[in-house]
From TrEMBL:
SUPFAM superfamilies: Ribonuclease H-like (SSF53098). GO terms for molecular function: exonuclease activity. This is 3'-5' exonuclease. Pfam families: DNA_pol_A_exo1. It comes from the Bacteria. Residues 24-193 form the 3'-5' exonuclease domain. Keywords: Exonuclease, Hydrolase, Magnesium, Metal-binding, Nuclease.
Length: 211
């Protein structure tokens, strides 16, 4: 496998769309959060992402609306705007035995701390994790396209994440983002283990010598 250094938006536009085909479960109560975390705790690695209601007014900042956590076949959507930050989720984020994989996690955690204090443990930042493989792009969409040849839709990014009910499109978007983080991590771990990849060669431009 040749791992590209970077990819263009034009390249991505022609790719088929990535879709999470597992089970999506929306969590709105502390009781359901306890059950969800109990289920997630069976897994050594999970994908994680968050969504915040966009603000179109200068100076207005909303708290994180949604925290999504995915395994290979399930994604739980924790609606923080409806139930606050349940203790079960904090336990999961602080659990050193469960690896949490995401992108721009520093920003996500900073925003989440506006809801409750916690000290995350065992986290993998994909922007750093991809560097040894020669990948220079920083966005989830580009990293996933480089490795899998599929594009992640961003059509729901600026939708209302505090809506009374999340639409099927919103749920699919949120679940796919968390799931793709996990997919990227798993593939890179496999490539590292097998060595079955090559970094894209950098072709230096020829410089004509002056006579």
């Amino acid at each position: 496998m040749i791992v590209r250094r970077t990819i263009t938006k034009d390249d991505i536009s022609n790719m088929p769309k990535a879709t999470f085909e597992g089970k999506i479960i929306t969590i709105c109560t502390d009781k359901d959060a306890e059950r969800a975390v109990e289920f997630l705790s069976q897994y050594p690695v999970v994908g994680i992402d968050s969504e915040t209601r966009p603000s179109f007014v200068k100076g207005q900042i909303h708290k994180v609306s949604l925290l999504q956590i995915a395994t290979g076949g399930h994604c739980f959507l924790f609606r923080l705007n409806l139930m606050g930050f349940p203790k079960a989720l904090i336990r999961l984020l602080e659990n050193p035995d469960i690896v949490k994989v995401g992108l721009s996690l520093k920003d996500d955690f900073m925003a989440l701390r506006r809801r409750a204090p916690f000290k995350e443990q065992s986290c993998i930042e994909l922007q750093e994790f991809v560097k040894p493989f020669g990948i220079q792009d920083k966005s989830l969409q580009k990293i996933y396209a480089i490795l899998f040849g599929y594009k992640i839709s961003k059509s729901q990014r600026l939708s209302n994440w505090e809506a009374e009910t999340l639409s099927p499109s919103q749920q699919q978007y949120a679940a796919t983002d968390a799931w793709t983080c996990l997919q990227i991590y798993n593939l890179l771990q496999e490539l590292h283990k097998t060595g079955n990849y090559e970094k894209e060669e950098v072709v230096e431009p020829e410089i004509e010598e002056k006579e």
